[in-house]
From TrEMBL:
Residues 31-101 are annotated as: Disordered. SUPFAM superfamilies: L,D-transpeptidase catalytic domain-like (SSF141523), PGBD-like (SSF47090). Keywords: Cell shape, Cell wall biogenesis/degradation, Peptidoglycan synthesis, Signal, Transferase. This is L,D-transpeptidase family protein. Residues 68-96 have a biased composition (Low complexity). It comes from Micromonospora vulcania. Residues 175-286 form the L,D-TPase catalytic domain.
Length: 292
């Protein structure tokens, strides 16, 4: 009789144990779409972000045997403060001035004559004002690098512009495009008045001399394709023998090369002359490019 009771108790205990294990298994019908389930062993001991070191967001975490915190000494050492504002480590070095070129006085002289680039002092010594004026001049006429140095190219361009005689071009009643082949400069007149101040150009090189004379713009195209040379000619204004005004595709101040007879212009000047010109605009070329 005792064996039967013991056996019954063992069976009952096994049934209870099996039912409890089944209740902990993941039930796909209980909701949660696959993101739930029993947590792996030990997962609850390390919640996301927790570590062995107590962080500032875990102030309530008990410590079995807390160690006394180290107090600040009664006579703390002075902390290292930031260097004073006048220290060399915090004050930015003064901006380096523009390098002085070998043509300093000449460039100062020409810029003073031209005006419009800021104050300059004609003394042959670089100053902050001289630097700013020279940089502005270089940027305007596409001289690279535009660092404010009064070098040979800057001096040459300034001299050509300062010595251009706008009255040497015989203007018509309407708009006239004038080209000084000797000085390699271009300007525009209307009714005898200057409507575009002299700017730089580069005309035909040796073997492709741009001829002097009086012509007329007879064809225009904002973007012309050159068949023989396979290059685009932006703001094209033709006046004679396949020659015309257009924006240059190379560095304008490279004197070792030149055009095949065309009048090369900087972008800003090509755009301005396109705005001023039209079919029928008078074109006057005087002088001759040196070396041609």
């Amino acid at each position: 009789m005792k064996r039967v009771r013991i056996t019954s108790r063992l069976v009952a205990l096994m049934v209870v144990t099996l039912v409890g294990a089944g209740a902990c298994a993941f039930d796909p019908q209980a909701g949660g779409g696959g993101g739930g389930g029993a947590a792996p062993a030990g997962a609850a001991e390390n919640p996301t972000g927790a570590s062995d070191t107590t962080g500032p967001d875990q102030r309530g975490r008990p410590t079995p045997t807390p160690k006394p915190t180290r107090t600040t000494p009664s006579t703390p050492k002075p902390t290292r403060s930031a260097p004073p504002a006048t220290s060399a480590s915090t004050v930015k070095p003064a901006a380096a001035g523009c390098p002085q070129g070998e043509q300093q006085r000449a460039v100062e002289t020409y810029l003073a004559q031209l005006g419009g680039f800021g104050p300059v002092t004609v003394d042959g010594r670089q100053s902050a004002a001289d630097c700013a004026a020279i940089k502005k001049f270089q940027r305007r006429y596409g001289i690279s690098p535009a660092e404010g140095r009064a070098g040979p190219t800057t001096s040459d361009v300034a001299k050509r512009l300062a010595t251009t005689d706008t009255a040497s071009c015989k203007a018509g009643k309407g708009t006239t495009f004038c080209v000084d082949l000797t000085r390699q400069t271009v300007w525009a007149l209307r009714g005898g008045k200057v409507i575009m101040a002299p700017t730089v150009t580069r005309t035909g090189m040796s073997g492709y001399r741009t001829p002097s004379g009086t012509y007329t713009v007879n064809y225009r195209n904002p973007k012309e394709w050159s068949d023989p040379y396979e290059v685009w000619l932006p703001y094209w204004q033709h006046f004679t023998q396949g020659m015309g005004f257009h924006e240059t595709t190379t560095y304008l101040h490279n004197k070792s090369i030149g055009s095949h007879g065309c009048v090369n212009l900087l972008h800003v000047d090509a755009v301005r002359m396109w705005e001023l010109g039209k079919v029928g605009t008078r074109v006057v070329l005087i002088g001759r490019r040196p070396g041609t």
